[in-house]
Design a protein that fits this description.
Elements (H helix, E strand, L loop, with lengths): L6 E6 L2 H12 L2 E6 L2 E5 L6 E6 L18 E5 L3 H10 L4 E7 L5 E6 L5 E6 L10
Parallel strand pairs: 1-4, 5-8
Antiparallel strand pairs: 2-3, 3-4, 6-7, 7-8
Length: 132
């Protein structure tokens, strides 16, 4: 098997709102769109993000009404504090403050209009001895 591209598909009530949020605040570009569907990408992201409207008949019946709950859309960035400051200036509500973990990860979270969690991460924190 050779993988030529990767995508994550999230089912939400309003795909256009989630697509706009990623475009406006995270620099994604809309690659394709139709009624109830939006596909976004960034050349440096390594993955496309697809939003599908809940209830779409093209989805299998057991998936149609599932919301993207419990998922975290995480992006590793090179300037975590800078991104946090930028998002705050843009009026984005930070739903989890910048949090260091003992294994060296640092992250903060926001939520899009459909409550999809977007987490920005770096690995520049102190690593506790038990994680070395």
């Amino acid at each position: 098997m050779k993988i030529t591209a990767s995508a994550v598909s999230l089912t939400v009530a309003d795909p256009e709102a989630s697509a706009s949020f990623l475009a406006d605040h995270f620099g994604f570009e809309q690659l394709m769109a139709a009624d109830g569907f939006a596909s976004l990408g960034r050349e440096d992201a390594g993955v496309s993000v697809v939003f599908l409207r809940t209830g779409l008949a093209s989805l299998p019946a057991d998936q149609r009404d599932e919301h993207a709950a419990g998922l975290i859309l995480a992006f590793v960035v090179d300037d975590l504090e800078g991104e946090l400051a930028r998002l705050e200036r843009e009026g984005v509500t930070i739903t989890m403050p910048l949090t260091p973990e003992p294994w060296g990860e640092r992250a903060f979270q926001v939520r899009d209009p459909n409550r999809v969690i977007v987490q920005l991460v770096d690995w520049n924190g102190e690593v506790a001895p038990e994680y070395r």
